[in-house]
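Issue 218. Parser rejects a valid record. Input:
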Amino acid sequence: MTLIGSGAIAGVLAGLFGIGGGAVLVPVLFQFQSLVGVDEAVRMHMAVGTSLGVIVPTSLRSVFAHYKRGAVDMELLRSLAGPVVIGVILGSLVAAWVPADGLKGIFSGIAFLVALKLLFGRKEWRLGAELPGPVGRGAIGVIIGFLSVLMGIGGGVMNNTFMTLYGRPLRQAVATSAGVGVLISIPGMLGFVWAGWGAADLPPLSLGFVNLLAVAMIIPLTLLCAPLGVRLAHVLPPRMLEVSFGLFMMIVAVRFAIGLL
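Output the parser choked on:
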């Protein structure tokens, strides 16, 4: 029931915030694996890799729903495609040797910074009036891909922040971030399959660091609930979206920080 419930919540959040739902799935999967006795040495890696596997169809469903509403910035998405994939590949290589506590620290630290920006940021906080040119976008795309795959998220967290800091409307940032989730989740999932191939103490029905049973259990509800999140994203006030997402990310950050103690 815990996995099913997390799948429903992740689906709503995918449509609502343009994220793949990994910010929900990673902590839930980590705790679930603790309960069923998955070895601690691979537990965090399994949570991240399995989350990426779930994000693939969730992000696809979300971005198509936003695209139908004309909210996706396709020009920006195309310019980010190559750099984001390069970042994902680099992150997957790092994931093959980084320890579990390292992944927890990355997840917690980034979630905390994003939460602070969403909760306390002001409209006048801007890095510029226009998005960076090709070189700047390329560098940011690599960073988004690299950090997102290590967190097991679809990149919406960081792409939302990137776009809003350059004056883009939150709803457009949410919609475009769903597309970034597609760019991250597919190569990211394959990267974690490779990174965990042949690893010791993997749970049954796993391909590397991706557990196929968990993916199969969670995906149906994420797909069912993602359109609900899209509808909410186009109805709720933007500030309500920011505060809600900020509170959620703060809770996640604190939870993982406590786990490092």
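Fixed in the parser; the record now loads. The first strand starts at residue 206 and ends at 207.
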